[in-house]
Specification:
By secondary structure, the protein is an all-beta fold. The chain has one helix and 34 strands.
């Protein structure tokens, strides 16, 4: 069974959503009854990609975070970041992370930062997901990415011993000035903060930024905001908070909290993207409702606008200029719309059934715009021309 792997936390209804899905593309060969030879099981450690999720382009390379997730038993192997040379789409390096389950990537200055979430355990009786290993924020120097043996910087993000749900950092955003990294917990309403100048954890599991009841299940998605603001979205409450990065309190401007829900039920804030120009400027993906909401933060009291219905199992958003992209994992495609006109551009990328596209990044290639999309179940990276819908190259 192919797992549509979104943050592994959340409410019981969302956990049920994750468990239904498609089919596993990594089957094991078996011996034909008429054949006297025995097929050997492929060693996952030799794969260039293994459960790839986050992707970012920087310095002539495309970086892919590999969770090493095993869908047969829900375990994680040793995670790593694959370095792909953009010019010829060749895999030139695999950099092992110190903690398991690397999910999110951000390129900043001459580094690529990798957020490792760690592992979790699900208690079916209590409907709770609990962190079972620590996370980390690690950095790879882009100029030496092709030859690096390990991340150059490792900042540990231990889970809490006093609050068992606090941990599992699974969403990453930087402050607008690039000084601070914020990581949203995937298991409860906590936010962690790291100073990127000193590589020190300022608000860790012992003293997180609290956005709700830490004894209750939730998942916090984060996005860079304007000036000294980070946006934090609650999956279980359909709320988006503005957090002041100078005080780590709920901001007074552009707003403190808004209701981003659409249906009146739990819609699930799954991912958010902010742009510094245009209206709306904050885009909120509601994973359970399959809806993208637009928020205009410049109005002080934020206005919420319905933008579009997604296809099945939407997973990630990206904004490039006046275009909004949506990764639809269930339908194996990327759809898009022109934001200013609210005009749908339809499917700008279509993948084979069972691909389970997870995340995308928009990049420049020889003066043209391309999309890099990870295929979680095909263990592949795709380069796509969004104008023609053509898959240009595949690394696998």
């Amino acid at each position: 069974m192919l797992l549509h792997r979104v943050p592994l936390v959340l409410a019981a209804s969302f956990l049920a959503w994750q468990g239904c899905l498609l089919e596993d593309d990594k089957s094991v060969d078996v011996t034909d009854p008429l054949d006297t030879t025995v097929s050997e099981v492929e060693d996952p450690s030799t794969w260039d990609f293994h459960g790839p999720e986050g992707v970012v382009a920087s310095g002539g390379y495309v970086f892919v975070a590999n969770t090493a997730f095993d869908g047969s038993d829900g375990s994680y192997g040793t995670g790593f970041v694959t370095v792909v040379r953009q010019s010829d789409f060749a895999v030139v390096n695999k950099v092992t992370t110190t903690q398991r389950n690397p999910q999110a990537l951000i390129a900043h200055d001459d580094k690529v930062y990798v957020l490792c979430s760690g592992t979790t355990d699900y208690d079916d009786a209590k409907k709770l997901v609990t962190p079972t290993s620590d996370g980390s924020l690690e950095a790879i120097d882009v100029p030496t990415a092709a030859t690096a043996f390990a991340p150059q910087t490792v900042i540990q993000l231990p889970r809490s011993t006093g609050n068992p749900l606090v941990g599992y950092p699974s969403s990453l955003a930087f402050s607008a000035d690039g000084q601070f990294a914020y990581a949203g917990s995937g298991t409860t309403a906590a936010l962690f903060k790291v100073d990127l100048e000193t590589n020190k954890v300022l608000r860790g599991a012992i003293d997180p930024i609290v956005l709700g009841d830490l004894a209750s299940t939730d998942s916090i998605a984060v996005a860079t905001g304007p000036d000294e603001v980070i946006f934090a979205g609650s999956f279980n409450r359909d709320q988006v908070f503005a957090v002041d990065t100078s005080t780590d309190l709920k901001a007074t401007n552009p707003f403190q909290v808004i209701d981003a829900g659409k249906t009146g039920n739990m819609d699930g804030v799954l991912h958010m993207v902010y742009r510094d120009t245009g209206v709306p400027d904050l885009f909120v993906l509601l994973g359970l409702a399959s809806v993208v909401q637009g928020v205009t933060t410049a109005m002080g009291q934020a206005g919420v606008e319905f933008l579009l219905n997604t296809e099945t199992y939407p997973n990630r958003l990206a904004v490039h200029g006046d275009t909004l992209y949506v990764v639809n994992s269930g339908n194996n495609n990327v759809t898009a719309m022109t934001i200013s006109s609210r005009e749908s551009l339809g499917r700008v990328a279509i993948f084979e059934p069972g691909t389970n596209p997870y995340e995308l990044t928009v990049a420049d290639k020889d003066g043209s715009t391309v999309l890099y999309v990870t295929g979680f179940s095909t263990n592949a990276l795709y380069e796509v021309d969004p104008d023609s819908g053509s898959i240009l190259r595949v690394a696998q």
